Structure formats: C-alpha cells, structure tokens
Structure prediction request, 124 residues.
Amino acid sequence: QVQLVESGGGLVQAGDSLRLSCVASGLTFSTNAMGWFRQAPGKDREFVAAISWNGGRTNYADSTKGRFTISRDNAKATVYLEMNNLKPEDTAVYYCAARIIPIIATTAEGYQYWGQGTQVTVSS
Prediction:
C-alpha cells in the first residue's frame, strides 16, 4: 500500500520560511518522479514544483520560482519543499504526489498517488 505523509506546515508571517517534508512508503521511491501541489480555499489544485527520479531535473510554477526549492533524498524516501520569502498568497493545503514513472509532470493528472496534505498559512 502506497503512503505519502506530509509534514512541516504551519502558521508563519510574510517573509518567513518553511520546509515541508513528504515521506513515502510502498513505492520503489528512486524510480518515481515527485511533485508538490497546493490548493487554496475555493480554488483548483495547482502545481508548485516537481523533481525527477534522481533529482537531476526540477520544474517550478512561475509563482514559486526563485523562492521555493524542491529536493529529494532517495535513501530516506523523502521529498522536501523549502519555501522562502513566503507570501499570504502562498496560503493553501500543500500536497505531495508521486508519479509511477521517473519523468516529471506539471499537471495533477500525471500523478497517481497523493498524500493527505499539510496546511500552510501565511499572515500579512
């Protein structure tokens, strides 16, 4: 059974930083591309960042480029999202997602497994 468990969310002020983690189990983690998505109240789920199986390729949404960094540790079956200079518009539930093939995707439809999400709230 595949499980993705996110952690690290919380309430912060604008300009602060947070690091999200997602631990995977039930996968051959090193063969999966991984992604982060987010969903704000009343909005569709949107792409945040993705990373290929070995970390060699990454992709970011325009809104997060330069502020967020995705990384992974295959030995720990964990993917991270370092978020700096947070803004109130970054407030959302953040979801970790796994793709059954090693190449990244930027749409939710490209991912087969999802975590339960972790709330990030940024106050102004």
Summary: The chain is about 0% helix and 50% strand. The first strand starts at residue 3 and ends at 7.
